[in-house]
Write a structure and sequence with these properties.
This protein is mostly helical. Helix content is 81%, strand content 0%.
Length: 64
């Protein structure tokens, strides 16, 4: 849950920065948000979550 919340927050900040910088307009940003919202309600949501969890575990296991 904490990872999901931080990823959502990070992606939201990136989206706002892109909109303010003029790299992406409001229309495509809304489409991207709606795509993510509807994608989360499909059967692919569990596979995507497992993939993101495995990436987070891999990053966490890297020690410097």
């Amino acid at each position: 849950m904490a990872i999901s919340l931080s990823v959502v927050l990070l992606l939201g900040i990136i989206l706002v920065v892109l909109m303010r910088g003029g790299s992406i307009k409001a229309g495509p940003a809304i489409v991207a948000v709606l795509f993510g919202f509807f994608l989360a309600s499909t059967g692919m949501a569990d596979d995507i979550q497992r993939f993101l969890d495995s990436i987070a575990e891999m990053i966490n296991s890297i020690s410097f």
